[in-house]
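As noted in the main text, all predictions were made from sequence alone. Below is one such record, for Cation/H+ exchanger.
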Amino acid sequence: MDMGNGTGPGMSGAFSGGGDEMMGMGGGGDVMTGMVGGEVTEMSPEVRWIFEMAWYGETVRDDGLICEEHPPKLSSDGIWEKLIVKTAGLYFWHYRLPKLEIVILLVFFLWQAFNILFKKLRLSVPKFSSMMLAGLLLNVVVTLSGDNSLIGEILVTKNRVDIAALLGSFGFLIFWFLKGVKMDVKRIIKAEAKARVTGVAGVIFPILVGFLLYSLKSAENRPLSTNEYDIMLLMESITSFSGIARLLRDLGMNHSSIGRVALSSALVSDITGLLLLVANVSRVANSFGDGLSILFEISLFLVIAFAVVRPLMFKVIKRKREGRPIEDKYIYGILVLVCLSCMYWEDLNQFPPLGAFFLGLAIPNGPPIGSALVERLESFNFGIILPLYVSAIMLRTDITSWKGGLTFFSSDDKKFAVASLILLIFLLKLSVSVIIPYLYKMPLRDSIILALIMSHKGIIELSFYLFSYSLVMVSKDTFSILVLSIVINSVFIPVVIGFLYDPSKQFMCYQKRNLASMKNSGELKTLVCIHRPDHISSMINLLEASYQSEESPLTCYVLHLVELQGQDVPTLISHKVQKLGVGSGKKYSENVILSFEHFHRYVCSSISIDTFTCIANANHMQDDICWLALDKAVTLIILPFHRTWSLDRTSIVSDVEMTRFLNINVLKQAPCSVGILIERHLVNKKQEPQESLKVCTIFVGGKDDREALAFAKRMARQENVTLTVLRLLASGKSKEATGWDQMLDTVELRELMKSNDAGTVNEEKSTIYLEQEILDGADTSMLLRSMAFDYDLFVVGRTCGENHEATSGIENWCEFEELGVIGDFLASPDFPSKTSVLVVQQQRTVVNNN
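Prediction:
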C-alpha cells in the first residue's frame, strides 16, 4: 500500500511535481451521469471523484490521505469498460499509462519544434531553452483554457502523484549523476591562472557586494526575507559547470580557446559554490549541534563514496576483459546506488541531486565505466525524460505574477526587489568576468564572450529554486520571477554570443604557411594525424621518404585522435618522445607512442618528433587539429584517408564517414597546407636493395598543384627517390602565361624545364620532366591508366585539372570532393594499380595585410 497526498517539502514535492490541494468533499457543482445497480443515475462531482478513485483502485482514509493499491490500474479495459460502466466510463487519458505517454509525446514534439525553429532562424539557442519554452507554452495554454479543459486534465494532476513529473525528476537525478561522472576535478589544478581567478572572483565578488548592500538596509525596510536573499545571492553568483558544458556543446564552442577557458572557469566556480553551499549548512541549521550532525553525515557519505565505492569501481575495471563492455549488472547496481544516495540526502533535508552528483564524482570518468554510463543513459535521458522535469517546473510557475517583476515602477516592492537583485548580480558578475581575462591579455571581444558564457543560467539554477520553493524558503511570486529571469537569460545570452563569436576567424593566419613559399633550406613542420593503428605504418613510411638534413630539418608532430567518452572536457596530452617510457601516456595511445619512439631512435633520429594525444568530441576534432597546427606554426597537416584497405591492398576493410567529414572540415579551416594520404602501396624509400621509390607529380596548374610539386621536389632530394613531373597541356593552346596564376606556374617549373630536356633524367636530382598534350578527360584517363604500374606514389593538387580540358567530361564522376577530380580517379577502386596517392591543398586561411 502507498499513501500520500501529492505534496511535501522533499522529493515528493520538489521533484515529483507534487499535486494541488485535495478537493473538498462538500459543495455543489454540475451533476454527472453514472451507473449504480445497473441503472444510469446522476451523481455530483464529489461522488464522481470517489467513483473514479474506486475505479483506479484507490480509497480515502479517515485522516484524508489517499490509499492506493499496488499494482495500480494503469490503463483502461477498452471497450469492455464502456460496456460495463456505460456513460460513466473514464476517458483513456484519465489512466496513468496513456496519460504519461501523451505528456511525453506532447513535451517532446513541442521542445523539438522550438529547437528546429531556432536552427532554421540561425539563432544559437540551447536545447534547454527550447525545453523551457515548451513548458512555458503549455503553462499559457492551461492558464487560458482552465484546469478542467482537456489539456488541463492531461497536464495538471490532482489528488495523486504526477507520474510524468516524477519520471522527469528521476531523469534530473540521472542528469546530476552524469554531471559528476563527466567532471574531472583534477582540471582545477591544470587550469590557467586567468580561468581560476575568473571562476573564484565571479562567485565571491557579487556575494560580498550583495551582503554589504543587505547589511546597510534596516530589517524593517527589507522586502526580502533572509532565506530568499541568501538563496538568490548564491545561485545567481555561481556558474554551473554542467550547464556551461551543455551550452558550449550546443553552440559548438567547447573545443575553441574561449570554450576551454570557460569550462575551466565554470569548474572552479561550481566547486567554489558547492563549498559555500555545504559550509552554509551549519549556519542555517536549527542549532549548532544540528549543523555539526549534518556536516558529519555529509562527510560520512563522502568517505563511503570515495573510500569504498571508488575502489570497488576500479576492481570492476580490472576484472573486465579487455575489449568487452561493462556487464549490465554493474550498471544496474550503480543506478541503485544513485537512488540510495538521493534518499540519504533527502533524509538530511538537503538538495537530493547532490547525493547523485558526489556519487558521480566517485565513479572513474572516461572508459570503460564512465563512458558506458554516459553512452547508455545520456541520450535517452536528455531527449525524453529530462524535458518532463523542465516542463513540470514551468507548469508550476504563476505567470500572472510576472507583471510586477517586469515593471520597474511596480507597486509591489518585493517583486521589484527580486528583479533588481537579479539584474545587479548579473551586471557585477559580467563586469568581473570581463575585467579579469582582459587583464590577463585576452582580447576584449573574447573577454566579453567569456563573461556572457559565465553569466548564463539554466536547469541547475532552475531546479535549486524549485527545491527552495518546495521547502517554502521562497514565495511563489519570487519563484515565478526567478523562473522568468532564467528563461530570458537562457534565450538571449546565447543569441548574443552567437552574434559576437565568429568561428571562421579563429584559425586565421597572418603569414604564409605553405611549402611553395618556403626556401629549399627552410624547416618543414608537419602535423601527422592518427585515428587507427593501421595509419601508423603509412605515416612513418611517408616521413621516412621525406627529405631532412641540418640545412632543411624536418619536425613532425604526431597527433593521436581519440573520441571523447564519459567526459565533458576535451583533453590534449603531450608526450615527449625523448623522455618516453612504456608506462607513460594513456593506454589507448601506447601503440602510437611506442611506434614513433622506435622510428625516432632506430630508423631516423634526424627527424624531431613530438607526440600528442587528443581526446575530443568527434564533431569537433578539426578544432583541436587546427589549434595545434596554429600553435606549433605547422606548414603541412597530413591526414589519413577515411578508407582502409586489406593487407593485399585489393579490398576495403573499413569506411569511416566520421573521418571523412573531419578531413573535409580540416580542409576548410586549416591555418596551413593540408595533405590527405591514401595508402594502398607501402610508401618506403627502401623497397628493395638498389631500387628507388618512384614518385609522380601530375601538374596542370594552380596553387594546389604548385604545393604538391613543392612537396614532391623536397622528396626528390632524398636518396633513392626518383621524381617524375608530368605536365598536362591543353591540346592546341599556347603555353605562354596569360595570367598571374599561370606566371607563378611557369616560375615554379622553370628550374625543371631548364635542367631537363623533355624526356631526359638529371642524375644529381633524380628528376624527370615530361609534357603531354591532352584533348579531354577521357584522354587524361587513358594516359594515367597507361602509367598506373610505373610509380609507387602519386602526388597531386586537390584542384588539379579543375576547370581545365584535363578533366572535361569526368568531373561529374568524382565521388570524394576532398580529393579533387584527378585524386579521386587515382584513388578509385577502378584504377588498375593499387598505387598510393597524396592529395595536397595549399593554405586557404591566410589573411592579406594589404
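Confidence is low (pLDDT under 50) at residues 1-43, 577-586, 758-764. Residues 510 and 848 are 7 Å apart (CA to CA). These features were considered when defining construct boundaries for the mutagenesis experiments described in Section 2.9.
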